[in-house]
Each structure stands twice: as C-alpha cells, then as structure tokens.
Amino acid sequence: VCEAALVHYRHFPTSVSAAVKKWALYERNSVRAGLRSGQQWVLTGFFSVLLLCLVTLPSVGVTLLLAYILVRGVVDPMRRSHALHWWGDKPAAALIALGLGVTLDAAKTLGGLAARLRRINGGKHAA
C-alpha cells in the first residue's frame, strides 16, 4: 500500500469540445464492451426520429427538440442534484445546461454509431 499516492481525476472536462470527445470515446468503448445497449438504441432511435421530424414536419421536430432541451437541460439536472437551484452560485451554468445535455447525448450517439460501424466493417476504421 502506497500512502503517498496521489490520484487526480477531472470529473468534467474544462471545455465543451473536450466533453464531446470524452462522451463519444466512452460510448465507443461501451459499445465495444457490450454495455448499455438499451440506452444506446433509445438515443439512436430518438435522434433518428428527431432528424426525420425536423426535415419532414418542422413544427413537430422543433417542438420535440425544445421539449428534449427542456427535459435534458432543466429537469434532468434537478433530478440528479436533488435541488431546484442545482447551479448554486453560478447561474450561467443553468443556461449552458440547456444545450450541453443534448450536445453530449448527440456525441454519445455518434460515438456508439461509429463503434457499430467499425464492428460491421470487421474492426476496420469506418469511413
């Protein structure tokens, strides 16, 4: 046992681009490990329906997107933190959360799809 060991862990990346890369990488590795396949298929299905609605029925697509942003950026952070004012002394975090949850879910979905495409191609890099 090494009592002097120091462990550093950044729970959340310091930039949106780093967060997107992290979530996409985690999801690629989750697909490779066979984890959370149900959640991956739900997200893939949701984003497929959302894109289809945005193209074919824009009013339905926009309504669906706004509802998702509200749930993912407002309701979900409150649920996870068990507090109505989860942002504490950083009110700008509440505004950032509106788009960040959707962005990270999209990154997870694309990461999962990339891993599936790679598996279909026999482990070779997908184009």
Q: What distance separates the N and C termini?
A: 46 Å
Radius of gyration: 18 Å
Total strands: the figure is 0
> What's the overall geometry?
flat
Enumerate the spans where pLDDT stays under 50 for 5 or more consecutive residues: none
- Average residue pLDDT: 86
| SSE succession | HHHH
Q: Can you describe this structure?
A:
The chain has 127 residues and is mainly α. The chain has helices spanning 16-33, 37-56, 58-81, 92-120. α1 (16-33) packs parallel to α4, α2 crosses α4 and α3 crosses α4 (92-120). The longest helix is centred in the last third of the chain and has 29 residues, at 92-120. The N and C termini lie far apart (46 Å). The relative contact order is 0.15. The mean pLDDT is 86.
Explain the layout of strands and helices.
Blueprint: H1 16-33, H2 37-56, H3 58-81, H4 92-120
Helix pairs in contact: 1-4, 2-3, 2-4, 3-4
Any descriptors?
127 residues; mainly alpha
Would you summarize the structure shown here?
The chain has 127 residues and is mainly alpha-helical. It has helices at 16-33, 37-56, 58-81, 92-120.
